[in-house]
């Protein structure tokens, strides 16, 4: 196998591989959208079996029943995602000279397979109830499934960016450690926020605080009555305020650094647009009493916000990843 790996230590841009990695990364968001819509309309348990749906890969009525269509198309899309990821990993392992990129692709395969199993356990163990947290074992796995999806997005995006011509060409001017640190902090904050959101969604806490921007019917900032659902919902709002300041801080750092490219600066503006859209959709969820299409859009834009932030932070870390500068 070593003979098939590109000779030398200098990476070579492979347009077909880069395109395939890009298509795979784009497909992740189709998968996220279908999963979010399935959860938003409460169709996660429309089929009580797994990996088949009602014992079939082509269950009766799935093209005409919206709940069955949402869940079964999510399963089919997940199968395609697994296939794409495996092909990408094999392709990289056979042709790529950079060990970190080959290992990252293998990690993506492990992650997508674990994600499939976790999704299956969400279905198979939904009948088991956990009194301590007043939810089912299946829903606990659903929370984990949603969190792992965000990690998978970042992993596959890192692979795709590593295959790109811009990454291989490198940065003409090094990007400062301050920008890298700001990007890493924002990625962590977003990941925490999306984890909180996953717990909130699968705990039926999306309308635990039914007013916005106030947190009670008297116009106050704090809820009057507290329980777990109110607490996790309020935590989601608090983290949104934190991100309202953190993400612009990161963009300012990006735009003030001489090493950032025009694409990164435009990406920073796109991140601000995503942030504004996400806040608007979050408010609309409350005002529309959790309209499933608005809720799906909110989840999708949240994933895009993390992906954009991670993309910018990953580009900023390019020289560190490739061992061209000190950490």
Spatial strand arrangement across the major sheet: 1-2
Uncertain residue ranges = 1-8
Give me the secondary-structure category: mainly alpha
Give me the number of helical elements.
10
Shape, per Cα inertia axes:
globular
What's the structural domain tally?
2
- Describe the largest sheet: 2 strands, antiparallel
H/E series = HHHEEHHHHHHH
C-alpha Rg, in Å? 21 Å
Provide a short characterization of the protein structure.
With 327 residues, this protein is mainly α. 68% of the residues lie in helices and 1% in strands. The protein has helices at residues 15-40, 66-95, 99-124, 137-163, 165-169, 177-202, 228-255, 262-287, 292-316, 318-321, and strands at 129-130, 135-136.
Summary tags:
two-stranded antiparallel sheet, disordered N terminus, 68% helix, globular, 2 domains, mainly alpha, 327 residues
Describe what you observe in this structure.
A two-stranded antiparallel ribbon has the order 1-2. The longest helix is centred in the first third of the chain and has 30 residues, at 66-95. Helix 3 runs antiparallel to helix 4 (137-163), helix 4 (137-163) packs antiparallel against helix 6 and helix 6 (177-202) packs antiparallel against helix 9 (292-316). Helices cover 68% and strands 1% of the residues. It has two domains: 13-169, no CATH class; 171-327. The two termini are 32 Å apart. It contains ten helices and two strands, in the order αααββααααααα. Strand 1 (129-130) and strand 2 (135-136) form a beta hairpin. The protein has 327 residues and is mainly α. The radius of gyration is 21 Å and the shape is globular.
